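FAQ: What does the model actually see?

It sees only this:
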Amino acid sequence: MSWPEYAIASPKGFYELIDFHSPKYVRALFSHNHESGKKIFLLGNRKSSKVTDLKAFKRKTTSYVQGVLNSKSEAVNNYYSPNEFFSWPRAINLALFRANWIDIDVTEKVDATKVRELEHDLIEKVIQILKKNKIPPFTGYVCSGSGGIHLYWIYDPVEASEVNKELWKAIANILIESLQSIRSLWYIDTAASKRAYGNLRIPGSVHGRTGLQARFFGGGPKYQFEDLLNYLNLESLRDSLRLEKELRVVRLPIKPKSNKPKQQIQRRYGHNIKDWWLKCINTIQIHFRKQGKVPKGKRDKTAFILFVALQHLNKDTAFEKLIKINDELIGFSLEELDGLTKTAKSTFYKYKKDTLAEYLEDLLDYRPEYLCTKPNVKLSIDEIRQRQKKAAKDTARKKSTNSKVIVAKTIKDLTKETGKKP
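And it is asked to produce this:
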């Protein structure tokens, strides 16, 4: 492919390329400078107190910055995740791949006045090396504000399936290997460049040491994931991974269905806490058995709430029972399952009815009937008066009955004592 001329562009151009503001799922926003003291927030479609938008996030990450600014500024040290997640940003929750990147850093701190010159020298060397190694041109790059740069190969989003995860790593390895000849003032942060769930500096945000903004330079192509694989000669790896996945699918023999109708056994639940949690466990299992398994984006929430529920029944056997459900429906490794339930093993979680109802609604896409709170019906003035009148009559009748009982008992006692009826 012919290489384009790259030019500085507004952060908005970068946001549009990677669908920054409108992720299909969620992406992470990260900063050490957030006024709340919390580091990670979410951007996208999720019910959470930590969901925010970029403007609000930037306003709340202020700090005094020296360097070229020497003043207080907003949007200091802001990072984001290029790829998307089903829920909380972790490797197991990856949902979509949107880009590959290379993170190139400086080996030593550079004076703020020399940073831009250093960035210019670096990008020229990078382009020469990539051309020589016949690597397709990057979509654009971000100058971090410290002398380093982030190269982006952006493509239309693809599912973060097991096959695509391996292909994403293969792309990252080729890109890193092609730039290994960069030395002296720069080095490739291989860990950051291979971390699909990692964070990179947001264009338009301020670098906390130099006071310089992270700047975006665009002009390169936006790819299709398949096209990028072809340019990097990864078609054979893609085909072999897909074939391997198909061979792993085991087709079980189909048992002939009996014509005998199944006997429906109604489970009667009591009104105590244990039966309430047992109903939750059964509801979740029935729901996902109908679907065949728990979808990837809901596995961590399912495992967690099932463990909490099982602990309310029996703390000693809770994890053992969760392992059985996991093997059937969820599909985590034992190590992942242990990590997910770590907090619940040391903290005994208690949920209010409304809180659990919201949790299950988010998990099952409906609110179980037994957790629905009956709405309070507002009565008219006439209905209130009628009810008050009926309550007064009922109270009077009860008092009258009680009085008659007391009188009858007193007569009986006096008759027995004196031998005469009073």
